[in-house]
């Protein structure tokens, strides 16, 4: 895998177009400058990822180090690890967006 294509591996994206619009997924491969492969571990598993135009996704400033390291080292990642990374992202990042305070204060 060439190092330039690894820059977005493991990054969380929000799908903007298509039947999965509004859902989150992880980039597991870069096909070229226009297309990426996405998986979420539930509907889109690692073995059957979704080919998506990069213009139809919104890059989120969150990269899962577990997913990224696993793909770079072994070329694979488990669906359980994908689900865990997305759950962790939703717990941390989306809670910040809503303004929820973990101490229960506003």
UniProtKB/TrEMBL annotation:
Keyword terms, alphabetized: Ribonucleoprotein, Ribosomal protein
Alphabetized Gene3D superfamilies for the sequence: 2.30.30.30
GO cellular component, one term: ribonucleoprotein complex
Superkingdom per UniProt: Bacteria
InterPro entries associated with the record: Rib_uL2_dom2, Ribosomal_eL14_KOW, Translation_prot_SH3-like_sf
This protein's name: KOW domain-containing RNA-binding protein
Species of origin: Fervidibacillus halotolerans
């Amino acid at each position: 895998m060439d190092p330039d294509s690894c820059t977005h591996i493991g990054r969380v994206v929000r799908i903007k177009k298509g039947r999965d619009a509004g859902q989150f997924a992880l980039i597991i491969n870069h096909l070229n400058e226009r297309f990426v492969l996405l998986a979420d571990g539930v509907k889109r598993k690692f073995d059957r990822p979704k080919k998506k135009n990069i213009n139809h996704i919104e890059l989120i400033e969150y990269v899962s180090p577990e997913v990224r390291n696993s793909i770079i080292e072994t070329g694979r990642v488990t669906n359980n690890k994908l689900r865990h990374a997305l759950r962790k992202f939703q717990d941390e990042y989306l809670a910040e967006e809503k303004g929820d305070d973990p101490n229960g204060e506003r």
